[in-house]
Amino acid sequence: MKIAVITPKPSKANFSKMFGRTVDVHSLTSQNVKRVLVKHVDIEIDLDSYDWVILIGSEPLKYFSKSTAITDATGTRVEAKPGKAWSHYEGFLASINPAAMHFKPEIKPVFEQTVGRLDAHIEGTFEEPDPCDYTIFCDDSTEAPEGLKLASMTEFKMYLKSVLASDSFAVSLDTECGSLYSRRGELLGLSISHKERQGIYANADYIDEEICFLMQKILDSDKQIVLHNTKFDLHWLTMHCDLDFQKAFDEGRMHDSMILHYVLDERKGHGLKALCIKYTDMGNYDKALDEFKKAYCKEHKIKQADFTYDLIPFMTLAEYAAKDTDGTIRLFNKFYPIVMANPRLKELYEELLIPGMRFLWRMEDRGVPVNMKRLKAAQQLLHEKIFEAEEQLYADPNVIRYEQIEGKKFNPQSPIQMRVLLFDIAGYEPTGK
């Protein structure tokens, strides 16, 4: 079997050793540039002579495939970019750049997982995930996308009753909203899952008092209630559906899969999609949504930061939203037992982080009372103290010496200048931190 890797630019890395198999190495560009642009691309490779081609890093991924985010695609098979000479090629695989492990050793587990997934594709042992059961509840005659079922809101009520009567350990919830702020936008829909590989999305336009009553019964049952970034959704569920989470909080049944992951790994990367790609077989499940968002912003000449979910067609949003709670409950089932098995992590999660999240939610919801007169007086006082501190700072012999040596005014906001001042001029010993 013949395999190639395509790197952004020439590299001395031993990719055959890194991937545990013999690979031919090609570079997107032969030039040693800092950032590879399309104008730099001069690769010469006969793709059809290879059974598989591994795209290393974001530049080769974006150049050869439809995918754009290497962190989302790593370890997966990706589609060739349409309209190109290589559009027929079906053997593209994606991988983060293993060279990054030299300065980011924390990504080693991600690369090891990537290699395992790529091996499964290359050796033909990769198995397609078991089918999932996703249902869209709405009073809409629109044809459902492939893999989704449509049902009426009457059936949605029957579903909620079945969840209430089930022996499910946990129920995951999520909201789709037309704004970041619950008082400024409309609730678009609700997602619920009561087991893995299952999810529903209900159109908020048809949610009535009976549905809210049934959801409250679920919240007040003995089931664990889990959301991802719980604080955000609580604003919408309490304000727009009048749901009360008091009993679930008091009984220790309120959970956040994002916080669970933070307890286990405090580094960045706690987003739902990224975690689902890393820990489940769901892949980049909101790809269609991302593509719609980019196309819409380009067509209407708006920034992606200004894009809101109420601009997304109902079925495009529904297909993505129904999978959100499936991913959430899968992550909860994976992380929760690990945290509960460690007394110190359990205490951190239950006694500090979940209560802290609830406190912040209440603070955001109710606001913080401020005495404007005292606030302005404090502001004036702080300005005076800062001015006094600056006078002392610039009168310091070490600062005066710094400015004489460097020939410029000292900036205390600059870590580089602070380092020179403290260690090179003032002579302090670094702490090692």
Describe the model.
The chain has 16 helices and 11 strands. The radius of gyration is 27 Å and the shape is globular. α1 links the parallel β1 and β2. The mean pLDDT is 92.
Short description:
The protein has 433 residues and is an alpha/beta fold.
Any descriptors?
single chain, 433 residues, alpha/beta, seven-stranded mixed β-sheet, 16 helices, globular
Task: Give me the number of helical elements.
Answer: 16
Biggest sheet details = 7 strands, mixed
Q: Quickly give the structural class.
A: alpha/beta
Mean pLDDT: 92
- Tell me the total number of β-strands: 11
Q: What does the overall shape look like?
A: globular
Query: Within the largest sheet, what's the order of strands?
Result: 6-5-9-8-7-10-11
Which SSEs are present, and which pair or pack?
Layout lengths: L2 E5 L7 H5 L4 E4 L24 E5 L1 H7 L5 H4 L18 E4 L12 H15 L10 E5 L10 E4 L1 H13 L4 E8 L9 E7 L4 E6 L5 H11 L4 E4 L2 H11 L5 H5 L3 E3 H8 L7 H8 L7 H14 L13 H27 L2 H24 L5 H24 L1 H10 L8 H11 L8
Helix pairs in contact: 5-6, 7-13, 9-12, 9-13, 10-12
